[in-house]
Predict the 3D structure of the following.
Amino acid sequence: MSEWHKSITAEMKEFIAEQKVFFVATAPHEGRINLSPKGMDTFRVVDDNRVLYLDLTGSGNETAAHLLENGRITVMFCSFDKTARIMRLYGRGRTIHPRDDRWNEYFAMFPSEPGVRQIMEIEVETAMTSCGYAVPREGVAERDTLRRYWQKCGDDAVVKYQQQNNLESIDGLPTGIFADDTRSAK
């Protein structure tokens, strides 16, 4: 049975802190829905209605494009250990870049990682928990592949990759990753 909340409860904060993986879903008004798995120590609950996650450079930048276009976002956690539980955070998000005023404050909340692209700030409108009885129970361990890749490549390679691969979504929407990328969403 699901339970709905207007904010993140203390029990939910504890559950979030225990999870090794979370999933982020966004969608443009028209185009493909994006669902991305995330991991590492990249998620923070700032207060009862605000969360952040550190976004590392990857193959696409769909979440940033969708947030720029309409702001809608859902984050899901599901337990793969002894606790059968799923939790979703529904809200509106925005992308924080190194050029933004709050960057230093937010970035200080996370461990240093190579390949950092941006921080996603989410105002949580509602939170929902459900049983998770059908989720398999299995151990989840962190991979260090992405970390090692960007350490080997260096900071210049990160920026070059972002310029080549992260300016637009797969549907051609701008991501706003660089200050000169100020085109409005189509």
